[in-house]
Amino acid sequence: MIQPMTGDAGARRYYRLLMSGQETRVVMDAPDQIESCRAYLKVGQLMIEAGLHVPQVYAVDLRKGLILLEDLGSKSFLDVFLSGDRSPDELIKAALNALVQWQVISQPEGLEVFDAAKMRSELDLFPNWYVRHAQQHEPNDAWFERWSMACNKLLELLAKQPQAYVHRDFMSRNLLISEPMPGVIDFQDACIGPVTYDVLSLLRDAFWSFSEADEQTYLDYYAQRCASMGVTLPPNLPQAVDVMGVQRHFKVLGIFARLCYRDGKPHYLDDAPRFFNYLNRELQADPALEAFAELLAELP
């Protein structure tokens, strides 16, 4: 028997195969994303080498964009957070342990680089999709010129951060309750980028928010694990996380607006206030970021 599974925000489709007995498998169907499939296989192998728990690959047909995978289950960390079945503490620390294991094996030539051009392209999703579509507002040329200058200052700050392997969506929805914990999925877009990207994604989740006190507790735990494992961090980690958050959260707002207005998935914009709350904190991290706050204040 074949059961459709809830997919991610991308074009990939997933199916659960119910086999004889209680055994199951997962099929990833990405017929127009052969390079994404190749990336999935490469990154998965790197994560296995790091000791992370990722789905075992049973069969591959790159021509058709099909990968047959181990089924790690369907209960994500997010499901547990929303249900209140158990404290997030154990889960977040397990995720942070896995993250440090992943970062410690980073190699300069191991994956594609998340460079300034890609970060800038992502930043521009905010005015191009959120402002123009969600807010139905067309900024003038002067606004865009100031936006460009603010983006350049942000990218200069991010260029100073140590580099490491980056999952790119290391958040509760992509971490599964499994043994060992966590099961890690949706890693095909992994790259080399700022070391703070994944810890930021985890602690300022797209669909769940921690208190600032809990966030700081987990950030301290992460810093201790990095120190013990030899992962280099920025000297002011909280500030560096804030700076990274500005880039990611403008990007996510743009992507969520695109999912709504281009792809017909309006529910993603329900979480937009969460990202503006994050940005309100993050834009205070450095005087160079104040221009973004001014630009936001001028929008509807």
TrEMBL record:
UniProt keyword Cell wall biogenesis/degradation present: no
Residues covered by the Aminoglycoside phosphotransferase domain: 2-223
InterPro entries cross-referenced by the UniProt entry: Aminoglycoside_PTrfase, Kinase-like_dom_sf
Record's keyword terms, sorted: Transferase
Gene Ontology terms for molecular function: transferase activity
Name of a matching Pfam family: APH
Protein name in the entry: Phosphotransferase
The organism of origin for this protein: Spiribacter salilacus
